[in-house]
Amino acid sequence: MSEHRRKPPNSGRGGGRHGAHSGRRGTPGADGGATAGRRAAGGGGGGRRRAPDGNTAYGAGTAAGAGAAAGAAAGAAGHGRSHSAAGGYDGPRRRRRPEPPPRKRFIDYPRSNHTGLRRWLPSWKQVTGMCVLGVGLLVGLFFLGYMLVEVPSVAAAAKAQNNVYYWSDGTQMATYGGEKNRQIVDLEDIPKEMQNAVIAAENATFYSDPGIDPKGIVRAMFNMAAGGSTQSGSTITQQYVKNARLDDQSQTISRKVQELFISIKVGAKVDKNEILAGYLNTAYYGRGAYGIQAAAQAYFRVDAENLKPDQSAFLAAVLKGPDLYDPQGGSVPGASPEDNRKRAEERWEWILDRQTEVELDGQKMMSPAERAKFDTFPKIEKYNPSAGLTGQKGYLIETANRYVLKNSDIGKEELERGGYRIYTTFDKEKVAQMETAVNDAREEYLDPKNRDKDKYVQFGGASVDPETGRIVALYGGEGFDKDHFTNNADTLGVPVGSTWKPFVLASAFENGTYRSEGQPISPESKYNGNNAIVIRNQEGDPMPGPGGDDFRQVNEADKSYGYVDLNMATGLSINTPYVQLGIDVGLNNVRKTAENLGILEDSMDPNNNASFSIGTSTPSAIRMASAYGTFAASGEHIEPYSVTKVVKDGKELGGYDEHPTKRGIDAEVADTVTKVMKENVIEGEYGEFGSGTGVAARDLERPAAGKTGTTDKNKSAWWVGYTPQLSTAVTLFRTDPRSDKQELLSMNGTGGFDSIHGGQIPTEIWTNYMKAALKGEEVRDFPEPGPLGDIVDGGGVPTPTESEIEPEPSETQPSEEPDDPTSSPPPSTSPPPSQTCEPWDLECQSGGATNGGDPGGETDGDPTTGGETNGETTTGETNGETTTGGQPNGGNGNAGSNGGDDGGGLIP
Hints:
- The chain is an alpha+beta fold.
- The chain has 25 helices and 18 strands.
- A 5-stranded mixed β-sheet has the order 2-1-5-13-14. Strands 7-6-18-17-16 form a 5-stranded antiparallel β-sheet. Strands 3-4 form a two-stranded antiparallel sheet.
- β1 and β2 form a beta hairpin.
- α8 packs across α9.
- The protein is globular.
- It starts with 10 loop residues before the first helix and ends in a 135-residue tail after the last helix.
- The N terminus and C terminus are likely disordered.
């Protein structure tokens, strides 16, 4: 072997050394001992790879065992490399490959190179990019919306369909609305003063703005999204676009967005004068008038080209809301003729003043000198809804329209645009039968040409099916074609008098009195029926009258009846028992009972005065017929309704097919009230005191129940009665349509009678109508009630061993009332120094007794706190004149006296 040849190492020593130095590379020996030692060390040190079992490249010798053991020991110390426990060598250790960089994302969010909160915070590049992208999308959407919308056509907006109304049998009753009250006029035919008034009032920057008001749009959209009331566009352009879009009048955000794009396109492409002309020709001015020409005719009976500056200012004012600015009144709460006129005058003055401030073409619209010429509000013509609606059709349509507006999201303006088919509950034959009964009575009893007291007499009536709630017939007046535009069937302001007493009776049967500790009382319970008795509260103390005197209630004709049970008190309509009974029951309980029967709270006298129990409230004939219908239906109440179905564009609208029944009062209570009225008011006989006040209803010749009502000085008279199949109310009153105060007039002397009572003309009309309406119908009797309550007498009733108490003398005998009480104001208590009582102000008056009524003692209450029958207030007595309850529904052509929209009738 050459001297240069390397000697093989000592396998034993090398193996041990390499085993001891775990982790270092050794030279392999021939016998493989060193290799085994290194692998043992690697195995003991937790090397990365394990070699296969057996010898590797160099084999293994006997010394491998020692090397492996040494290597294992060294490996146990934690210094081993990649060595096999079997002594093999797996080659040199490779360096760990670095992790590849993360693949880049199109949008690095959450941010990969950050941790914690910064990982979720976008970078400024991301924020900038999103802003640019958002702006780009908005611009794209804007241009898309702009291209998709069309400029509206004024001619198309002027075209509309009529509404079609149907009788209960499905046959056509009438058409109303639509094209006949629309006419386009050129801007040259519209006075410059009219144009200026609208611009000054609605949009002073009209000629310079882009046609939209972004702030107004955002405000309106936010308001609708939050569930608030809808709002119209703020500029004339936006309002014109809204008016012209007959295909979509919905109050939604999507429609607002569409109108925004249309307004922008109109503002960019259409001349301002054309926009102004379009707005004036499509705007709604109320009274069914669309466009300036129709409005000029509706309010002033002139063509648009002949409008004067003061008239133009008024028409600009009414654009803000016809229901609130038409001096003749509106159909929403707070829209009485007085309130509307006050609002209209204030806005009219403001618009005229505004024209002296707004500049157009470099100069003021109106000079102060010209403005000074208009200091008187212009004369407004009476509203004639439609001379073509003869007879009762106008009132029927009005009632149906109110019901639709109340029970849907259809607006008044939208309804008057037309296109609806409205199916009503009105029975054609029954409507004609009621009209015939009224006309026969008018012809028999009234002679207005030769008797002044027969002038201005108003009739009203309503008939309701107790089992379904359907209003089957109405009498609202002589007809729209006779210049009578108010609905006497749906009034607010005519006191109902003693027809209120059954509500007190029902409350006593249901709630008892404080003497019965809340337990029902029997109709055999007795009360003091003498005249001018002191009314006492539940503590037994006299109720205060005017001037500190005790309050005394009087009866009709100052009659005294002694102690009478509630049967006789009802049959003869005696006041004093009912006034005391109401106090004993609790007037709030009476209110609740009346409301459960169907009387609207808004129509009730707001004052808890003693006379509340004898009829100072003013419900309509519709509501009285409905409430008595609850008695007829054994206490089950269904809200009265006049519409069964509404169809638009071939689709039936929802909300008209459900009429739930609710329990108004207990069946035994309702049936007992019916029995008391049937057996006492109609069938009762009381010896020296005569028959019940409703004796004339016996002519119906079938079981019936009802109650008369007459107010003091005969300013109104009622009869409300029913059979199991039909409930009907009839009212009679007088009011002068030319009077500014619109107060009720006395009917003393009307029809040749000294005084008119509910048991006379109203009962006769009711009987004649019911005979015709029920002809051929089954004769049905009312359910017989079981015993109800205990006999719990009022205060002072003597026991059987005591002698009958003589009537209480009044401190001063009532004096004879004047023949014509309308010549002086009605008696009322003086208000506090800071308060002034206005006519028909229910809130301002309180207390009071009554006088005057049906034969036998019927009288009705006055909300005043006292006074003798001659109107004085020195003794604490009162004649009970009913002068409360808002304005009467009155004379021919006077819509201002109709308050049924918001309390008397269908719309609460």
